[in-house]
Description:
The complex is a heterodimer of chains A (377) and B (236).
Chain A (H helix, E strand, L loop, with lengths): L8 E3 L11 E2 L2 E3 L11 E8 L2 E12 L8 H24 L13 E7 L2 E7 L14 H20 L2 E2 L8 E4 L8 E4 L6 E2 L10 E3 L5 H7 L13 H16 L12 H6 L12 H10 L10 H7 L53 E3 L17
Parallel strand pairs in A: 1-6, 12-13
Antiparallel strand pairs in A: 2-3, 3-4, 4-5, 5-7, 6-7, 8-11, 9-10
Chain B lengths: L13 E10 L5 H10 L3 H11 L6 E9 L10 E3 L3 E3 L3 H9 L13 H9 L9 E9 L25 H8 L14 E8 L4 H5 L6 E6 L10 H10 L2
Helix pairs in contact in B: 2-7
Amino acid sequence: MAGLSGRVREVHAGGGGVKPGDVIGGYRVVSEPTNADGGKCMWAFAEKDGKEYFLKRFLEPKRPREGSGSATSRRIRMETCREFEERHRSIMKLLRPDADGAGNLVLATDFFHAGSTYYKVTERIDTAGLDSPHSLAPKQRTVLLRTLATSLRLLHDIDVVHGDLKPANVLVQKREGAAFHTAKLIDFDDSYLSGSPPAREDVAGDSLYGAPEWRRYVQGDESVASGDLTTAVDMFALGLMTHLYLTGALPAYADRFGSPADAVNAGEPLVVDERLSTATQALIAAATSADPAARPTVADFLTALKDPGACTVHGTPQPRPATGRSRVQFNPPDRSGPLPDRSAHGPPAAGAEPRKSRVRINLGPRRDGPPADRPTP
Amino acid sequence: MSTEIEKYQGNLRYAVDIVMCIDATGSMHPVLDLVKNSSLQFHQRLNEVMGRKSKEISQLRLKVIAFRDFGDDPSDAIEQTEFLRLPQQVAEFERFVTGLEAGGGGDIPESGLEALALAINSPWEKGLDRRRHVIVMFTDAPAHPLGTVGVAAQTYPRNIPRTMDDLFEQWGYARSQTAVMEQSAKRLVLFAPEEEPWKESIGEEWDLTLHFPSRAGEGLEEFEMDEIIETIANSL
């Protein structure tokens, strides 16, 4: 990937207001830049050499210009930029576009700075405009979930947590002539090594799809340490998304809670749709367990999807799982082993300066709400 | 990890503070009219957009800083409200914006940087679990350099930086020791022309800043209120 193997490529700057027709790093902007679903970014579509791309402009950090601010200010800002570049390089080294099965990961193809601003480029994915995966036939839903879980397994196999798994970060695609919709996983900018998330104020995530331990971590609950944020965080989100993709809604929880994780943290289990098969009810209940260790791995999840009835929504209520949700066993993995080396990816050392929060507040539709907005490229 | 649910701290509560800096000079009729016409519905429309984005605000406060030009008439170069809580204080908000008349301005550069400096130094909410502090600048003109025009006037703000570098330090950056805003909460949204200081000095160099170029001298007539509210909502 250009620009990530060594120094980050530097190109001519275009100023703060990007507009259609501007050329940035060789990419000609072809749509109005927007901050819709952008988090701390703006984005637009762009073209280069006849190909179409998704161009992401980071709002921070900003590289200091010559003569800008005091020497101390410039040193601090450059240090932040070096860490930013290193974090992106590290994740991109782990997530190679040529890895087996990486076809459903939408990975960066370029990373550079123009003047003070960092940009990242991925291929443009035309989505199928599918707002209601639950309206697909069961077999279609199975393929969709399988491609999503397979992409997630690629990450988890190398101990990488996506960290912001939600419908908006999954592009549903149906290639011309293809029989099935597939899921393409995007936005690895907030990924981290399992057990080594950024600091509490810095970790990204979505408050609707965030796991209970993530929720408590960002709220400063000291009983949750950084090592508690593992790939099981993604599994909680995958459990919610499975319910959403199958039924069109998240599992139910009391209105007084702002999110599924809030309900689970308060000891109130989520209520899974009874029209799902008993096995799928158990799968979702386990994936949304309060205890990360009780959640299935993504491999367990893929095994469960082999059940031909896994994605069927019945016309009548199906029996509830025989055992309590906390007793559902999927041979949970041993997540108690030594943590990965966090020297390259971990949070700043104790005593470091206050960091930014990257939490995206999403207190959103619950029982009957529609699927969350997906990027509207 | 402890599973003691009694330690659970409850739902995240989200506080949003918005400061609108509005150029109220002669050419700004279009956007001033937009703000006036939508003031009563601002809260509702913002909530509707937020709802569509699956987001919810626990507490919303709004502050307006109208600016003209200290070089033209220092007596009305700055008019501002305190933070007004919406929807409870919507009548005060409406009263203030209804009273704004687009006029004056003198030469082309205006006193937008003084307004921005006042906005940065606003008494931002420090409570609740998560906060978003957004400054929205509406102008169709460049700005006088800070501390160069109208400084001797009695109405000129006393406690704002006198140089662009000092203002930048107040805006801050990650790990800044001089920032007066919370780094994780702040955003600056510029509806401003591709002129200085908006284009390069701020739009390119300041972090967490979004610049939507406007046409110079046309009062931001190309922007619809829905688009503005959508952009604000996207930054929350």
